Request: fold
Amino acid sequence: MVASVAAAAVMSNSSFAASPAPSELKLDYAYYSPESLVVKRFGWLESEFKPDHTNVKWVLSLGSNRALEYLNSGAIDIGSTAGLAAVLGKANGNPIRTVYIYSRPEWTALVVRKDSPLKSLSDLKGKKIAATKGTDPFLFTLRALHTAGLTRDDVEIVNLQHPDGRTALVNGQVDAWAGLDPHMAAAEVDNGARLLYRNVNFNTYGFLNARESFVTEHPDTLARVIKVYDRARTWIVAHPDDAAKIVAESANISLPVAKLQLERNDFSNPYPGAEHIAALKAAAPILTDEQLVKPGTNINTVIDTLVDTQSARRALATQ
Reply:
């Protein structure tokens, strides 16, 4: 194993050679996670684990809800979600831990057509809103409604996966849509859609989550994966135009759309920590207010057990 790590020295360190890598490494890629697209495009994980004869399997997640389903079922070991969606999954029994922050995004807002008469959140009362349940846009919508004195019962939420929500909005089947980039950026650039309500503080972070069993059984492999993701993060910051091309080609969107998406991401802090715990605890009341978790659930405890503040720091300490 030491020899294999040396062969991949550009990404690894012999301190991560204590235990063998698994025969298969299962991860998701998602259009809302630029790092996953870069890592997949360049084959960095395949190169990293080639000496270990580890097969890398990629699964597409169209939203946090899908990533959480795959993590819960064991279809993937590591997956990309929004922060509050991860809390919801963990609270409802999904055995995950957040091991890395891939971005601080403003990736969701409430979107209407360019000719929509709706001007404010209060205008949404009695209207149809497309949203993907169990995702950041869905939870963003609930929090936004609360600021206007509205609840989920005051609107009709139509449960559609993110790209289908955009289509429903453009076709006039719904009055508003809880958008998610890059689909939201595409609706703005390609369809002239406008953002009815924005609040960057209601967007929760991009969480890279691992199954608890994977964290426990394969800490060295996890550290190597984190290092590869961090290589992608720093590469995106250094090569924004090339990163936009990869996002555009991967998600089948135009280059202006991909650039708009990336502009709405802050890649500066990859370490899960107090900042993220505090933000989640501030957002968490919506989960109990809307009865999305079982009565009596201690959300603060869920958050404390979700956010792993050590794995990324250990993995990246030698860089």
User: Anything to note?
Assistant: Residues 219-238 form the longest helix (20 residues). The mean pLDDT is 93. The longest strand covers residues 96-105. The domain at 110-202 is CATH 3.40.190.10 (D-Maltodextrin-Binding Protein; domain 2).
